[in-house]
Amino acid sequence: EEAVFLRKKITLLRAFALLIGSMVGSGIFISPKGVLKNSGSVGFSLVVWFVCGLLSMFGALCYAELGTRITKSGGHYIYILETLGPLPSFLFLWAEFFAIRPANSAVVSLAFGRYMLEPFFAPCAAPVPAVKLVSLLGYYMVLTLNSWSVTWSARLQTALSIVKLLALALIIVPGMMLLAQGHTENFQDAFDRQSLVLDKLPLAFYAGMFAYSGWFQTSFVREELVRPERNIPLAVIVSVITVIVGYMLTNVSYYTVLGREDVLVSPAVAVSFVQRAFKSLISVVPILVALSCFGTMNGGIFTFSRTLFVASREGQWPPLFSMIHIRRHTPLPAVMLMFPLVTAMVCIGDIYHLMNFFSFSRWLFIGLATLGLIVHRRRHPELRSPFKVPLFIPVSFTITCLFTVAMSFYSDPVNISIGCIMVLSGFPVYYLIIHRQLSSRCRSPFCKYISSGLNFLPFFSRLLDYLTHKLQLLLEVVQQEIKTY
Predict the structure, then answer these.
(1) By C-alpha distance, which of 485, 215, 154 is closest to 363?
(2) Which of 2, 259, 387, 441 has the maximum number of C-beta atoms within 10 A of its C-beta?
(3) Could you tell me the CATH superfamily of domain 12-479?
(4) pLDDT single digits (tens) 375-406
(5) Cα separation, 250 vs 170, whole angstroms
(6) In terms of Cα–Cα distance, which of 243, 244, 249, 242 is closest to 273?
């Protein structure tokens, strides 16, 4: 008898766990190789890690202000829609569904499968088919949990956030102990300018920003947060500072124990670290890392389903995906929608190519969202936000995002071009379906159902009823002919 809606179940602790659980995942355990490879040296890679953390803090502060100005859930999508209009928001939704989110989920699930199997096959590499099978099993488990209960998904995220911090501590402590004992040989000539290639730096930033990605997750569940005006800024600031400190210490530990060449040739940096530092925990740390990836998958599914839910409510996605399970209070159709695309990308993809593929689209639209904050301030100077950042922060973050996106065309033109084509392919879809829906030219019921793309279920239901009725008439005629014969 009560109204069916998404309940406010995300407390400050759960918001903090959601951010930590989304940021500390596969990134810190697989990105060091990508950052080092594209930055060229140990010193420059550490600079990239720090700058990426600083940029993430800038972006997180911008999103915290947007979250207090715009009271809807939906993250990037709703911020772009409310500030820049329906076309860029639909292009984001299109790219997010077909490129960004499935590729991101595939990267994290592949990292989960690799680390889960490493202890069983060491010192050999785990077979690729086995890695992909375990990756899919882990993803399906998280999918099932998010379909079952919001509360249990949040509780799992809180528990796994503790596991993530424990995994980082097991890497940081021995590395710091060795560094204190004077093992600094791997930091000799740390800033080797000859190995620095400027046109590869955007890819190094993509890898680093991938590791920090997740600072925006509370914006996706804004309507489910308890006291969002207070809890969003507080959770964002504390969690991002915690992750920056943890990531810098983790990378210093990696380089203290492993040399530059060891990091570059390692398929799983954390496993190589444990093999070199202390073999007694060789089977423990990879499992902790795998659980970290599991938590990142859980956070990703939890938040993206809310994007589809809000987009359906705003009229840019079929209404089926704005439906909520009447007893579970979970957005079940939106949760299940990513199942086929993630499965396909896990089966055919490679971690580092997938990372470059989706990073272009993600940072393009994040830059547009923070640009939207500047626009929103200009349009609504009378609006008093409970949390406001200096104008310098959104301006510098937006310029950095858009400049990095532009530079990436020189770094990896193939994958970036594919990502660009994926975004641009949303233009005809928008004008043929969404834009038509907003105009009143098309009056016929058939055109209304097909062109809007929103009421396709009643259309097919009526079509099915019509065909069933005709089939029954045909059967009656056949029966009558048989009786007559």
Answers:
(1) 215
(2) 387
(3) Amino acid/polyamine transporter I (1.20.1740.10)
(4) 988 888 877 778 888 989 999 999 988 887 88
(5) 9
(6) 249
